Queue: 4 jobs
Job 1
Amino acid sequence: MARLKVGLIFGGKSGEHEVSLTSAFYIYNALDKKKYDVKLIGIDKKGVWHTGSVKELWINPGQTEITRLNVKTREITAVNKNGKVYLVDLNNGKIITNIDIFFPITHGTFGEDGCLQGFLELLGSAYVGPGVLGSAVGMDKDVMKKLFRDAGLSIGKFYTLRTGEKNNLAPIIRDLKFPIFVKPANLGSSVGVSKAKNRNELMKAIKVAFQYDTKVVLEENLKGREIECSVLGNEKPIASMPGEIKLQSDFYSYDAKYISPDAATPVPRADLKPEIAKKVRETAIKVFKVLNCEGMGRVDFFLTPKKLYVNEINTLPGFTSVSMYPKMFAESGIPYPKLLDKLIQLGMGRKKRSDKLKRDFIA
């Protein structure tokens, strides 16, 4: 039986570019090469697609702080020809290979926010992870939180600032109270995130966040345990056992996630009462459905003594050696390679479902 040709897409025009390189490196090594013929597709910071071998594409693989994409590699694009999807060499126009399914692990803007997913839809290709809508609303913290609120989910107080608007911060400060978290609305991995403890720090934090996005979200500081839960599936998603992030740092920053091993301790199975663990899992699935997600997602919570608050979802969560999404499912009985198998099967299944829909209409 022929191996399935998987186009593993990573990198991209995002502040999470390096994290994506690391996630893809671990995914590549975990994919069963007897089942899959893996084609590597690295997107550089200008948006150019590259392909090559492991040794050609990755510089310092697996080390987020120093890893790089080699941009002196073959430049490519993807096209649909006669109903099949192919990778094409941009220099000579020759077809390199066909692709059965794409596996994007492009964290952040232009890769996790529906942009890449829209292109893959136009190609008519199968792909792993949520579709255009789920990806878009799952990335935008402003829209996401409004959908949570409308669905009756418990969330912390928040305000949204936009480029070009005049904002009166005084009532926001009175309502949220310091410390206040400041985040770019459309980014992940804690890139551009600050915890402001006074007005001067707040102004600096807003300036930093606006470097990454045209919308900035200000959130109240919820004092509670940081609980996470992984979700897997399409129409009938399942949730993993909840995990917990135990912090030794001020908050779960980019450095704490990927650089400094002592800043945070990821615990794949949180010490929770059974009824609390059940509520976390049920709420994670509800979040997944509210945002119209498919494939995968990691839902983050704050657990206070009185309430479980939903923080956000990550629709293309990390797959590095310290990432919680695969660790929580491994703890729940689905090891890393089997998890990748299931994600690919879900992507193929969604494509078959989509292909059955009518695309034309004659009255």
Job 2
Amino acid sequence: MKQRLFAACLALAVLAPALASANPEPTSYDSRSIAMGLTGTSFLERPAALVINPANLEGIDKLGFTLNFSALLVKQWAPVRGPNTRLESGLGFGPLPAGFIAGRIAPRVVFAAGIYIETGYGSDFNQVTCIDGDPVGPGPEYVPDTDPTTCTNGDAQDLDVSFFVGEFSAGTSIRVTDKFWLGVALRLPFSKQVASLWQNAGAALGAFGYNRINNNLGGVGFPSPRFGITWKPHRKVTIGAMYRVYSKIKLSGTSETGLLTDPATGNPLELDANADWFIPHAFQVGLAYQANERLLLVFEGRVQFHAANKSGNQNQTVDVTDPTGTIGFPIQPIVVPFGWRNAWSVKVGVEYRFPVDLLAIRGGVNFARSATSGEWAQYFTPPPGFSGFLSTGLGFYWDDQTGEQKDKYMFDIAGAFSFSGGTIGNEYIDTQATVPGTTNQETLCSASQVLRTGCPGDVGVFTYFLTAGFTLQY
């Protein structure tokens, strides 16, 4: 029974932090879009429109391709060492490449394909000597310090989480009329997630037992569509809308902990782990206003339906098996709580093109609500509450040598900064809460949790974007 419970704890402790970090969707597919506040649904008529609004592919005359690279830098803080403490992570790095190609295959039809990172994340807390108010170490012989901010008798441990979700997509646009375009794309998602953590797996036995836990998961999801509509009711006004149907990724890999060892070798027992991860339904709509030949104003909004019962992220079922037969009996599936809410954002972008035609300057703001709730907030999840996003960038344009092909070559650079954070109060400590999507009860921010949630303290994330992209289009 102890082995079974420890294995169950392993699934809970290992998978929850890595997967929960998938809330943010930076949409870093095109540097012009990033510079203008992550907009583009209503105006981006480039190959990257495949993933932002496939209807806008109709803006490509003959052929185009885009190569884009974004560096996502993340620094966060959370009460890792115990309630009402603060610990800052290192600077996590996530490379986010993207590539698209599109070409007209008929007078009213454009076909496109692309591969890109939908979201990526990396973060770590280094040399942590205290977790949840207790010194870290090899076992229960460690006595909690009176000052959880120091825990001088604990062994320093590193906590690391990194993951990405990518997609391959192919789609088409159809020019119904000169003022009304339709688009559809088919997406094939894939993911890779790695975590190395030090957690209280012994909590499932009502005891104290921290140990190193490692996991390595990956998988490919089921294809699902993305739809787009573009309407140009006036020569100065364009309205665009995009709807993304949810996708489910089947994750599989290995998990291990020092609490479960092979009797023959003494090495950690390697367990097989399987779980599903959902990319939720999403809807985005925007309006672009071309005030004059040089000034473009954009207003957009987006909703992601993380709270959907069957296609969101209320919880996650984890199946763990022992391929070696050491445990000797099946392990019951584990339900990992997330309790995410629907996330939304509002965006404003502006672009001014200088009279020399070579240069454009851009800016944007983005205000959003996180999907994370206070009750189920974890150390590696985006903090609950609201976030702000500020961006700026430049665009450089070159015609072909004859001067007949305007804006054939485009080079864009952008930088952005996002902040989200606040303070979780003491209201969740030792309170009973129902695990989302189940009837099970759990005591929040207590020693009975393998992965503590709802613990009070300062939580926050600084995110920096540095991005560049090149587009050839004619």
Job 3
Amino acid sequence: MLRREGVEAYPGSRRLLDQLREQGMPMAIVSSSKNAPDVLEAAGVSEYFSFVMHGGIAVERGLQGKPAPDTFQEAARELGVPDAECVVFEDAINGVIAGAAGGFALVIGVDRGAGHEALTQAGADVVVSDLAELVR
């Protein structure tokens, strides 16, 4: 279905990904969905990420899912970056809770419907409506 109907990345997200790649930032995706690699491929953004932590890998490695920080921390290890130097971008309440619990440098909530206040209360340091707000 993904290949037939396609998935489109938010333009602001793609702009931020381009900027981060130009700056040489290592990037990973953390998703509870086992089909995350297929979704990234269909959206045309898989090349940005050197590691995809998805539900299948989490189960294989015995990691707790969100709201536990385990999958984010494992992705940071895969990138070779200390948790305290990583930024988490998350649009779900449980993901923000996980990021806040993980000792990361910054948790950015992306309000795609969860609500600015709810993301802030869950532990987001900053909340944006679109990742384009972070592009210089």
Job 4
Amino acid sequence: MSLFQTIPSRDPGDRTRPLADRMRPRTLNEFVGQEQLVGSGKPLRTQIERDDTGSLIFWGPPGTGKTTLAQIIAHMTKAEFIEFSAVLAGIKEIKQVMADAERAKQYGTRTIVFVDEIHRFNKAQQDAFLPHVEKGNIRLIGATTENPSFEINSALLSRCRVYVLQALAEDQIVQLLQRALTDEERGLGTLKLRASDEVLAKIAAYSSGDARSAYNVLEVAAGLARGIAGKEVGAEITDEIVKDALQKRILLYDKNGEEHYNLISALHKSVRNSDPDASLYWLGRMLEAGEDPLYIARRVVRMAVEDIGLAEPNALSLCMAARDAVDFIGMPEGNLALAQAVVYLALAPKSNALYTAYGAVQQDVERTAAESVPLHLRNAPTGLMKGLGYGKGYQYAHDLENKTADMQCLPDNLRDRSYYHPTNEGVERRIRERMDEINRRRAQASADKSAELKKES
């Protein structure tokens, strides 16, 4: 049996297929999420509707619609669609498909090749696609959960447009679950199941933005509800049933009714409060419950820049190293790398000066985005620009004795604005001293400039 087959026609009423597969959107109008890509007038939607997608790479976490988008393209396009997995295919199979696609082109038939988990292909396998993408024998659509910058050959990547898919929001997953409960053709509608918004929100919260995972939990919960109620129609999916469906993850992770975000919040606030014991405990609660360690690693990196900042600049490097260690050695070995990072953060000197400063910058940027760059800070590569005053009055700091010019670098209406106010914690104490020294130098430069102007007058 060939690995390379066009998508078969699927009976929407086939109840042997998993709910997640039955509920897969068939059109862009059914698709939920990724509005930045497939919303009305957005570039990917326009390309699909025009049947002019070219070669694409879909990059995003599991359950965000990468395969679904490829299949929607398959149903809307006028090309032959071939789908296979990078886990199963080898170089021999790839070359055979490329040869078939080249022959098909001679007869006026275009071919779209969809490769799931394309990051699993090695360099030789990826290179096999390159000449056929260049010649236009195929349109390649690859799906990957890994950063294509690191996992896909640059030559191949340069010939594809990369679209980044985001994890679905909880309200979007709730919308999908509600659709599954009421859809009588493909979903669970004929069972007349009942589930409160709170129950569906709990499923969504623990799906981590993965629609497939949410559908799987709902399907298990539906079976449990019917068994407990002793009837095929009209059963209710309760909070307790959802806990049973989630099994260990929910029992450990939500033992006292806490939501997903409450535990990561507890870890973050324990670190902020310099409590290494509590930090380790909340970390352990999440890891032992089955939380994605890379999700925790991302949040730990956030803690390093939000709550530690320049009071201990090495914190960010250590957290990035912990992230890389988790990615490299996996779990459970990687749990100690995360433990080391959170204890280091908990014991490090704290400062939110950068966090506060950037928040103030964002507010000013929002109201002053149209402000012009001062003329003396602009480059003047042409005579016309020089004639208009570009670069006039710029002072090259390296040529000055104290290396600091009395020169305005903010727009006029923000002339004296100050954002970053370092604390006396850790390295920021030295940064504060350095800033004070720079301010003294600038004041001296201003005084010298004033004295020189008075002398000239």
